[in-house]
Structures are given as structure tokens and as C-alpha cells.
Amino acid sequence: MSEPTQIGLGENRGGSAPSLDLLADQTDLSTAADWFALLKPRVMTLVVFTGWIGLVVAPGHLHPVLAFTAILCIAVAAGASGAINMWYDRDIDAVMQRTQKRPIPAGRIAPGEALGYGITLAGFSVVVMALATNVVAAAVLAFSIGFYVFVYTMWLKRRTPQNIVIGGAAGAFPPVIGWAAVTGGFDVMPLLMFAIVFFWTPPHFWSLSLFAHADYARAGVPMLPVVAGARHTRVQIMIYTLLLVPLTLVPWAMGFSGNVYGVAALVLGLGFVVCAVRVLRDRQDRQGISLTQDAPARAAFKYSILYLFVLFAALAVDRFVG
Amino acid sequence: MVDAPDMLPPLSRAESQAIGRRRRGRNWLMLAALIALVGLFFAITMVKISQGTLKF
Questions:
Q1: Which of A311, A309, A302, A313 has its CA nearest to residue A204?
Q2: Interface residue B14 vs chain A (CB under 8 A)
Q3: B37 vs chain A: nearest CA distance in angstroms?
Q4: How many Å apart are CA A249 and CA A264, to the nearest integer?
């Protein structure tokens, strides 16, 4: 049997334009990959990694099956938050070039189905976390989901250019959850890991928004470059980077980690400062708009991802070496 | 005759096949997820029993 020819499922099928909801309901367009895409897998990677490091660094031992379950719950909770975020932001996703091919704005998944999917997975992750580890870890997990959905997505994102500063806290919870899964409580170290991710988030996202600000402006999202201008954003990236670097040295200075981490934090931090200086001194016009197609901001964005991965990996290495 | 609003044209054979393929893909994924869940709950239960943290 010959393979059917490529067809434009999910596109408007001619005639009067049917609503996206109707199209998705009637023609059953979604693939398994679409449902996976709803979980924002790329964001999930970093969340899972930092959660795992929290689990590894924590004193004590968690059975590998329970540790795997805890990480799975963190991943599913992050994915559920992403799905609910895509449900809520489907209007702005449809006008942003970067997001308009997502399953909901593309019409392959009905918004209500995405919401139900997100809520179900969120509830599942919290209950399983409580059963497999402890109530403290499950409570922090539930709080982080609520924070991302209600505080960041529904409240801050469309209202203030500080959206990712405060909302970024949602992404800083995983190491705390990992730690709590092992110990059943909190300590200074998980709070330091929380603070590191918290202060890392603004330079990371503002670097992205410097070269994606047209998209955000079109969608009416008040990201810092849209509201305060690119020049001000460059200064803010510099300030947060300068706050972040000494903060990353605190675990080493307080004796919570060894020299491997200390050296890594220093070297990586200097690299991040260099990136921030390049963003600040990028060739720009009077408004601070880049004349180099934001090459330094793109480099800083990529570096920031590598930075957090390697920094947290160094914490784990120290734990095994020390 | 007036077309009903939001009425879609009938699906072609190729479109029906493509949708069927997508549906089967989702069903297989759901099956895999359910089997994985059964395995996960079984493993958690065994660990809890072996650690003595699951009381009957």
C-alpha cells in the first residue's frame, strides 16, 4: 500500500474558518509528540537536572527507585505547569513567531484538553511524590506548580517587566524539592541553590528577550526590553550577573562544598561576567538596539545554560569526590 | 441551500489514514505510560515493604 501523500492537517481546511477548538475536536489532529511538546521538554531538562543535584547533594540516602520516582515527579510537575501555561497563554503564543507552532495555537490540541492534561499530571505528580518520598517534598512541589501557574503565568507575566525576576522563583524550587525528598526538611544549602537559580534567571531570560523582543512586543508581553528599552536591559543583565557570581561562591565559602565547586564557580562566573560585559558594550544605536544582530546576547543566553549545568554538576562532583 | 457554520468538508482517504495513524500513536503511548505506571507503583511498594515503611 502506498504511503498517503503529505497533507496539511491542522491548517485551515478552506471555506469559512472554523474555530481551532472545533477543528481539534472534530478531526483528532494531535500526535503523541504534540502531547509531549505540551510539557515543554527543553525547560524540563534543566529542572530535572537541578532537582537531581539537590537530591544528590543532600545528606542521607534515598533508595534509587524512590530517587527516580522523585525526579520523575519533578519532571512531570514541570511539564504539567508548562501545559497549563500553554493553555493560558494560547492567545499570545498564536502571535509570537517562536511559539505559534505549538500544539494549541496550531489547532492540533483543544485548549480544554490541554488544561485537563496539565491539571491531571500536576495532581498525579504531587500525590506520587508524597507516597514515594515525604509530605514536605510533595508540599514544595505543589507550591512550585501553583507559583508558576498563578503567580507567574496568570498574574505577573502580562503585568510587569519584573515578571521573570519574581516568577523565576518557580524554576528555582527543584533543588529544594530534591533535597527535601531525601531529608524531609530544609537547610541552608538548598536555600543557597534556590538563590543561585533565582539570580541566574534574569540574565538568562533577559539575554533571550534582547533578541526576541519583537516577538514579545507583538504579543504585548511587558518584557524588560519592550518596556524599559534594550539599554536598560543590558545594565540589568550586568547587575544581576555581578550579584550572581559572589552568591555562587557562598556554598564554598561556608564549607558546604569543596574546592572543585569553588574553582568551577569562580571560573564559570568570570566567563558569565565577560558575556555580560559584551552584552553591555555591544555596538548599538541610541535606544540600545544592537547593530550586531544581538550576537553577544545570543552568546550570553547559550552560555547561561551551560553555566548552570556545569555549576550544579560541580556540586555533585564535589559530593562524590569529597 | 445555506452551509452550516463551522461545518468542515468531508475527510479524504489520505486524511482519514493520517488521523488513524496519529490516533494509534497516541494509544500506544497511553499503553506504554500505563504499563510504566504499573511497574513504578509495584517497585515503590516493594521498596517501601523492604524498608519497613509500609505498614499493613
A1: A302
A2: yes
A3: 11
A4: 9
Contact present, A202 and A240 (Cβ < 8 Å): yes
Please say whether the beta carbons of B26 and A103 come within 8 A: no
Residues 6+ positions from A69 with CB-CB distance below 8 Å: A128, A129, A132, A133, B40, B44
How far is C-alpha A10 from the chain's CA centre?
Answer: 27
CA–chain centroid gap for A181, Å, is: 21
Q: What is the pLDDT along chain A (322 residues), one digit of tens a residue?
A: 333 333 344 444 433 444 445 555 545 778 888 999 999 998 888 899 999 999 999 998 899 999 999 999 999 999 999 999 999 999 999 998 888 899 999 988 999 999 999 999 999 999 999 999 999 999 999 999 999 999 999 999 889 888 888 888 889 999 999 999 999 998 999 999 999 999 999 999 999 988 887 888 888 888 888 888 888 999 999 999 999 999 999 999 999 999 999 999 999 999 999 999 999 998 888 777 778 888 999 999 999 999 999 999 999 998 888 6
Whether A7 sits inside 8 A of B14 (CB atoms) is yes
- In B, minimum Cα distance to A22 occurs at B6
- Length of chain B in residues, anyone? 56
- pTM tops 0.90, yes or no: no
CA distance A311 to A236: 22
Verify whether the Cβ–Cβ distance A4 to B17 is below 8 Å. Answer: yes
Q: Which three cell numbers stand for residue A93?
A: 503564543
Question: Is A284 in a helix, a strand, or coil?
Answer: strand
Measured distance between the N- and C-terminal CA atoms of chain B, rounded to whole angstroms: 70
